[in-house]
Design a protein that fits this description.
Blueprint lengths: L2 H17 L10 H4 L18 E6 L5 E5 L4 E4 L7 E2 L8 E7 L2 E6 L4 E4 L7 E4 L1 H15 L2 H13 L5 E6 L5 E5 L4 E4 L7 E2 L12 E7 L2 E6 L4 E4 L7 E2 L8 E6 L5 E5 L3 E5 L7 E4 L6 E6 L5 E5 L4 E5 L2 E4 L8 E6 L4 E6 L2 E6 L9
Antiparallel strand pairs: 1-2, 2-3, 3-4, 5-6, 6-7, 7-8, 9-10, 10-11, 11-12, 13-14, 14-15, 15-16, 17-18, 18-19, 19-20, 21-22, 22-23, 23-24, 25-26, 26-27
Length: 360
């Protein structure tokens, strides 16, 4: 891919992400990212009103939310009160996941942070410069001209590309995905990393927006309707054909062979057979899906650009709350009746009007 087309797609990435109400994710010059990727986040007395993009729950039921300027917020009382955790970066953080007390957060500048104490403390494990160097080394070792060209661009352009989502399992294995097809894996909780770009059927380096893992099964969703699946813990991936060509920002593994992906213009695709066939549903107002989460019982929760909280009931999309909310960036279930929703205005703990559908 040429450098000119790369710049065009960088602008498109920023425009698309702004279009789903997370403008903080738009690509920024390397000169503005390099220092914040190694500068401690400032403590703010209004952090719970900032732009927040991702949330997760720890093994001790602590809520953890992340967002702009390296913000990491913790709540031990179901979202009633929040405090800020010290973080070694001040770039925008886009996603956070926990397996027990071990957590990982990713964001701008190609940063990856880990915590082994429920989010109290964080360690920088990867940044964009090191990621680019690892990608170039791997591409040269494989003698793959296309990957060498893409990796060289990552090196030349600097750490201006965000990671957008992350998966973690109970053994501390990490997978991070992001802009321009970036995907990296760590088998030791972030101490060492391996580029996986060569494992994906993604020759154009399409943006990867979401990743989910369940056992040895992996699901990746991205730009231009890209859906990739692995059933052997990432040793190989298969591209799943959906006929949908819009960007997909949401991916979830519901049941044994039940897959959901969703994205632009309120489009949701569901497969009951591991991605062989798909059923398309559309949100009533066609507003883009921007985030998702699964409840403890497998219930699916979705949020949209229009500020709606949706779920599935009897196979149909239904609105779970009638509250007037701003454009939403993410969601995390607190319990069966309440969810935490994230927006450019901060955090809201919301009581739902009705339940979402659990696993059948």
């Amino acid at each position: 891919m040429s450098r000119k087309s790369n710049k065009v797609r960088s602008g498109v990435l920023g425009a698309v992400l702004c279009g789903i109400s997370i403008c903080a994710l738009a690509s920024v010059p390397a000169s503005e990212v390099g220092d914040p990727a190694h500068r401690t986040a400032l403590i703010s007395n209004q952090a719970d009103q900032a732009v927040l993009l991702g949330a997760a729950i720890t093994g001790s039921n602590r809520l953890v939310a992340v967002g702009e300027r390296g913000l990491v917020l913790l709540s031990d009382d179901a979202g009633a009160h929040w405090r800020q955790s010290p973080v070694p970066v001040s770039v925008t953080l886009t996603s956070v996941r926990f397996a027990g007390q071990q957590g990982v957060a990713v964001g701008h500048g190609g940063v990856v942070l880990t915590s082994n104490d429920g989010g109290e403390h964080w360690v920088l494990r990867l940044d964009g410069r090191r990621a680019a160097e690892l990608a170039l080394q791997a591409a040269k070792a494989d003698n793959n001209p296309a990957l060498i060209e893409r990796a060289q661009q990552l090196v030349d352009e600097g750490p201006d590309k965000p990671f957008l989502d992350v998966a973690i399992d109970n053994d501390g294995h990490l997978l991070v995905v992001g802009a321009y097809g970036m995907i990296f894996a760590s088998a030791d909780f972030g101490q060492n990393w391996s580029p996986w770009m060569g494992r994906l059927d993604n020759p154009d380096g399409l943006h990867l927006y979401a990743i989910r893992q369940r056992g040895n099964e992996l699901l990746v969703a991205g730009e231009r309707g890209l859906v990739l699946s692995s059933v052997n813990n990432g040793a190989s991936f298969t591209r799943l054909e959906t006929s949908y060509k819009g960007s997909l920002f949401v991916a979830e593994l519901l049941g044994e062979r039940d897959i959901v992906v969703a994205g632009l213009k309120g489009s949701l695709l569901r497969s009951h057979d591991g991605g062989v066939t798909w059923l398309r549903l559309t949100a009533a107002d066609a507003s883009s899906f921007t985030g998702s989460a699964l409840g403890a019982d497998g219930s699916l929760y979705l949020v949209t650009q229009a500020g709606h909280v949706l779920g599935l009931q009897h196979g149909a999309l239904v609105q779970l709350s009638q509250h007037a909310l701003p454009s939403l960036n993410g969601i995390a279930p607190v319990n069966a009746e309440n969810v935490l929703v994230l927006s450019n205005r901060g955090l809201t703990t919301l009581r739902l009007d009705g339940p979402a559908e659990g696993l059948k």
